[in-house]
Design goal:
Layout: H1 4-17, E1 28-31, E2 34-37, E3 40-43, H2 57-70, H3 78-82, H4 85-97, H5 109-121, E4 126-130, H6 135-144, E5 147-151, H7 156-166, E6 173-176
Parallel strand pairs: 4-5, 4-6
Antiparallel strand pairs: 1-2, 2-3
Helix pairs in contact: 5-6
């Protein structure tokens, strides 16, 4: 058996050969959408802080007040002892804003999709997923243990064909896709479950 070091080295070399090796680059956010990287001031189009809330004075003030009152961090997962009172307040406000019965906050959009998809579809369901769907949707698909079927990017006719072909043998179905796609070319997925392209 090869060592873990050799396995990791080979995997990294393979990613680099395909132009897929990524590395961390220190980036300091200086003001709103401006960042500093490598001594240069740059306009960032890659930030998730679309509305610049991270620098809004009222939000920064509320965060400071919460730290003074509650300290930093929940201390554990919500199911153990980390179901902090602020989560209930936030979720109630979000539900009210969305005119929904309830809301559930996740640590990130990635975690939301990786957690919600398996909870809703399950191993006896059918999950149809766009071939260019974000990695978080693929993570949720793999965790769901459902029958995963890939459809061609934005091809509703192909989706309908696959749905007609597979739907009758599953108790329920889900379609997973993005509103905005971050990739421009198809990628192959090695999923534990069967796929059709």
């Amino acid at each position: 058996m090869r060592s873990l070091d050799q396995f990791a080295t080979n995997k990294l070399a393979a990613l680099e050969a395909r132009g897929l090796l990524r590395s961390l680059v220190e980036t300091a956010r200086t003001d709103m959408i401006w960042v500093e990287r490598g001594g240069r001031r740059l306009l960032s189009f890659s930030c998730n802080d679309y509305l610049n809330f991270s620098t809004h004075p009222a939000i920064k003030g509320a965060a400071k007040a919460a730290i003074d009152t509650y300290g930093v961090g929940a201390g554990a997962s919500r199911l153990v002892t980390g179901n902090h009172p602020l989560f209930a307040v936030l979720e109630a406000k979000l539900a009210q804003i969305k005119c929904a019965e309830a809301a559930c906050v996740f640590g990130s959009g990635y975690l939301a999709n990786a957690g919600i998809i398996p909870a809703l579809i399950g191993e006896h369901g059918l999950l149809l997923i766009d071939e260019l769907a974000h990695a978080c949707l693929w993570a949720g698909a793999q965790l769901s243990r459902s029958h995963v079927v890939t459809f061609r990017h934005n091809d509703l006719d192909h989706l309908q064909e696959l749905l007609t072909l597979h739907r009758a043998t599953h108790d329920h179905a889900m379609i997973a896709t993005d509103g905005v796609f971050s990739r421009c070319r198809p990628r192959r997925r090695a999923c534990q479950h069967r796929t059709a392209t």
